[in-house]
Amino acid sequence: MPAKPYAPSHIGSVASTFTSMRIAGAVKDNLVTLVCEELDRLVPSMEAATLDNDAERKTLDDAQRTRLNYNRTRELMIDRIEHVESVGSAAVQGGIEHLEKFLARIIRHCEEAATRDRVSTIKPRHLEIALHSMGKGNSPDADDEEQHEEQGIEVQGGGIITITHVKSMSRTHAKMAITDDAAEDLLLTYGDMVSELENDIRQHANLGRDPMYFIDSVNRLSALMAFGWIRRMLMKAADNARERGYSRIDIEQIVHIDPFE
Fold it and tell me: From CA 4, how far away is CA 32, in angstroms rounded?
């Protein structure tokens, strides 16, 4: 049995949120027809896109982008209500729309901060800048700063290297100070590259692709092992900074170095 179309009064109520004018009854009737015709166009295209992504899928999906999970959002909203007994579907849809817009706004600010740093990865400092620009950031106290500085990553060859280690290595080997942001960026770049190379090695080993590519990936991974790579990067960054008359290494010097050069 075919589904009943929207009621004109319902479509009129929804449409009235987009205008301050009154909507005539005949217009509401026509809007019902137009919305249903738009569904005639939309659903087949969504169905085709869903099956293109997963030929075995049995449920229509939004292939354009991933949305916040409906059931999880509803459960989270139920946990937070105090004066009503339940959460309706309209409230959940409204909540999802609000949260996705909120998330998009945060990411947009993060992206702007990362673009100013000339990097292609959104990092914790970019989120801090974004939250501050949105009026949601808190100034970290001394304990937070000390704890943040001592966070580090596990490096190839064993051990943990922190921002403090990088700053010490910069003074010892590059004979130049380095900012906290630049040291953090260097560590994150190291971690990202090792992870990407390890993934390449696993893929090519499992799929039996060109062995020369596999060997090249192993060689590149070996070049990143231990502290040698970080020392080389610091020395190149210091040379770059001196050429520009800078007294310390900043992010600008780190991001423009070829890590395998």
Answer: 11
The CA-CA-CA angle for residues 49, 53, 57, to 5°, reads 95
Phi-psi region of 154 (alpha: psi -120 to 50; beta: other; left: phi over 0): beta
Instruction: Give domain limits for the chain.
Output: 1-66, 68-83+90-139, 142-255
Question: What's domain 1-66's architecture?
Answer: Orthogonal Bundle (1.10)
Of 121 and 144, more confident: 121
pLDDT recorded at residue 88: 92
Asked if 193 and 225 count as a contact pair (C-beta separation under 8 A), the reply is: no
Residue 139 has pLDDT above 70, yes or no: no
Burial of 253 (0-12, 13-18, 19+ CB in 10 A): buried
Residue-wise pLDDT for 181-195, tens only, equals: 888 888 887 777 766
Classify residue 234 by burial, with Cβ atoms within 10 Å: 0-12, 13-18, 19+: buried
The class that CATH gives domain 68-83+90-139 is mainly alpha
Same fold: 1-66 with 68-83+90-139? yes
Which range, of 47-56, 86-95, 134-143, 247-256, averages the lowest pLDDT? 134-143
